[in-house]
Write a structure and sequence with these properties.
alpha/beta; six-stranded mixed sheet; four-stranded antiparallel sheet; 22 helices; 10 strands; 66% helix; elongated
């Protein structure tokens, strides 16, 4: 008997609250997709480095999945709590007819089990097919070949999904049992008649609080735009606090402000059933302002994470292709010491120095001033906040001969430089501003009585694989002998990729087997840097998508569940309007406007937050290179509108079904 009743209730719940099952299915599907990443290595051509990167990603996603499961678990418990409140009267009738609390708990347990089984089956099917599409995205991120594609099912991901969601649903069952045991019959019968009191009753106070919330938000925006996000200081923390406070107060006071504002427009206020729509909407905002504030902040995180996360991976992709010009860069310091004389090439063993694996190579020296204005702080320069204590960095120099030789290795033409001029080169966007000031301000450099002026604007040129965020000045060969030369770098290009791998083995063996002072301190290879960048790029992309999707589902689901609950609680008001002669079409339109406004409100404020946030974040990202954030924003907007739109549609259909069934 109980099982039959539970089965009918489960079917009824699916029909009335399809948004709940939709959330469960999405949760299971996304969980499976991201935990099956490692299995996709079977269908993409992977290198040893890619294999290592996928293992690292799998480990990161495993830890993150624990956090995601907690978020989804809290969401499911939250949704379940709404439905228990919605069914208080139903449970009261059961108890009136003689059923004890244990019987009600069994019904809820069976219903939850049926819903869980359906969600797991449908969610896993969605996840399995979704992971096939994910494999294309994974191959693109790893810049790997997908020619050996075939259908993949991850047994480990499926088992993990079943275990994690099994624990979540077990928690829901325990929560239901505890909730039912605490309820009294009088609470069950009359539970749906209890209304929450407004937070702010005075319209004047509500308007004052609303204005104050706007001032808090404007102050937060101003501070973060001025301070940025590089320095985590008191100003940064103040902007966060003001932003959160302004958001909460905005929604707390909005309901009273809207009513007061609309009352001045009497033609609109009293048209059709606008007064009912406005009061219903105002009541919902007033009652749920805390949850709406949290949703708004989460949506802000979703937009920021998606947009900036994808932009960063795009930037890293460009850096992989352009920032590692040589197969190997061997580095040696203090080569003028007695034990460490000569060039790196001279001190390398012949099997490395004369290897047929090498296509071309060149060794250059880096010099620094012995005296005079040797630091950046000695010059009239403006330093961005992102370059922490850059003014204490010494200037570094390279001879024109070395510079031209490196240009030839890259297939570039030679440049001519006199002893009266110098050139400025930089390797990253983040130092471009400082580098350009030397030419823009015609800054003079002095060497032993010689005054040098810049010949041309600063140029982007990467000297080796080891330089990062550095500016180098090119001077005549004669000047380098007057400096302290503390670093030499040997750049090497190999015949092909296979030769580069073999050459790396030679270097590693030399490092291990050499009993004497080695010819170099360390080396940096293109492949090593590529592997590190791929790991960073893939990690950023998947973390952004994973967290963004979970937060998006959480926000939309909470809004949907609240709306369904509110409509169910106010069914008598809709019934009264119908008895007063309001047409069904007008009621449906009122319902549509209420739900749409409720969904759009936190999204619009989150969009405003995101505009400010992305302006600040974009300033930081641009320091590392040029990006097209427009594509990232477009992709983010499509994703949000798709998920948000589906939840809105399901909520409207479910709410209309409740109203039309009265």
């Amino acid at each position: 008997m109980l099982s039959k009743l539970a089965f009918k209730n489960a079917l009824k719940s699916i029909k009335d609250y399809g948004v709940y099952l939709f959330t469960l299915v999405l949760g299971v599907g996304i969980f499976y997709m991201f935990n099956s990443i490692y299995a996709q290595k079977e269908i993409i051509t992977v290198t040893e480095a890619t294999e290592t990167a996928m293992r690292a990603l799998q480990k990161i996603l495993s830890y993150l999945s624990v956090f995601v499961s907690v978020i989804l678990g809290l969401l499911i418990v939250y949704a379940n709590n709404f439905f228990i409140k919605r069914r208080k009267k139903e449970f009261g009738i059961y108890m009136t007819l003689g059923m004890d609390k244990g019987g009600i708990s069994i019904i809820l347990m069976l219903e939850t089990s049926i819903m869980a089984l359906m969600a797991l089956v449908v969610g896993l099917i969605l996840g399995v097919f979704g992971s096939q599409m994910m494999s294309i995205f994974t191959a693109k991120l790893f810049e790997a070949d997908l020619s050996s594609y075939r259908f993949i099912f991850s047994y480990n991901a499926a088992v993990k999904s079943i275990i994690y969601f099994g624990i979540i649903f077990l928690t829901v069952i325990l929560f239901n049992t505890f909730s039912i045991s605490k309820l009294k019959l009088i609470d069950l019968i009359y539970g749906g008649r209890k209304n929450e009191m407004p937070r702010i009753k005075s319209m004047k106070i509500s308007t004052a609080v609303f204005v104050f919330s706007l001032l808090c938000l404007v102050a937060a925006y101003t501070i973060i735009l001025k301070n940025g996000i590089i320095k985590i200081n008191l100003w940064f923390l103040l902007s966060i606090i003001l932003g959160i406070l302004g958001t909460v107060l905005f929604f707390m006071s909005l309901s009273g402000f809207i009513v007061l504002f609309m009352q001045y427009n009497k033609g609109f206020y009293y048209k059709n059933i606008n007064i009912f729509v406005l009061r219903q909407f105002s009541s919902k905002i007033n009652t749920n302002f805390i949850s709406i504030s949290v949703i708004c902040l989460l949506l802000f995180l979703v937009i920021s994470i998606f947009s900036s996360g994808y932009s960063m991976q795009s930037l890293l992709s460009n850096e992989i292709r352009t920032s590692f010009p040589y197969d190997y860069s061997l580095v040696d310091y203090n080569y003028n010491d007695d034990e460490n004389t000569g060039t790196i090439s001279d001190r390398l063993p012949s099997d490395i120095a004369d290897s047929k694996l090498v296509a071309n190579s060149y060794e250059y020296s880096i010099g620094k001033m012995k005296n005079g204005k040797a630091l950046y702080g000695d010059y009239s320069l403006d330093f961005p906040k992102t370059l922490f204590k850059y003014e204490e960095t010494p200037l570094q120099f390279i001879s024109i001969s070395d510079y031209n030789a490196l240009r030839q290795m890259k297939g570039m033409s030679k440049v001519v430089l006199t002893e009266q001029n110098y050139l400025i080169i930089y390797d990253r966007e983040m130092v471009r501003d400082v580098a350009e000031q030397f030419y823009d301000k015609s800054i003079e450099l002095n060497f032993a009585g010689n005054t040098l002026v810049p010949l041309s604007p600063a140029e982007n040129f990467v000297l080796s694989n080891i330089e990062y965020a550095s500016i180098t000045f090119v001077v005549a060969d004669s000047f380098l002998g007057k400096m302290d030369v503390g670093k030499k770098v040997l750049n090497i290009n190999c015949v092909n990729k296979e030769a580069a791998r073999e050459f790396g083995v030679l270097l590693d063996n030399y490092n291990v087997e050499s009993d004497q002072v080695r010819a170099f301190i360390y080396y940096s290879s293109r492949q090593q840097l590529y592997d590190a960048s791929v790991v960073s790029k893939v990690s950023i992309s998947f973390l952004a998508i994973y967290l963004g999707a979970v937060f998006m589902i959480t926000c939309a689901a909470i809004l949907a569940i609240q709306q369904l609950s509110e409509v169910a609680d106010n069914i008598k008001r809709y019934d009264l309007l119908n008895k007063l002669g309001v047409e069904q079409g007008m009621l449906n339109h009122a319902l549509f406007v209420q739900i749409l406004s409720y969904f759009l409100l936190p999204l619009l404020l989150a969009a405003v937050h995101s505009v400010i946030g992305l302006i600040v974040v974009n300033k930081v990202i641009k320091l590392f290179g040029k990006i097209d954030i427009g594509f990232s924003l477009s992709a983010t907007a499509i994703f949000i509108l798709l998920i948000y739109g589906l939840y809105f549609l399901l909520t409207y259909i479910g709410s209309k079904g409740i109203v039309n069934k009265r």
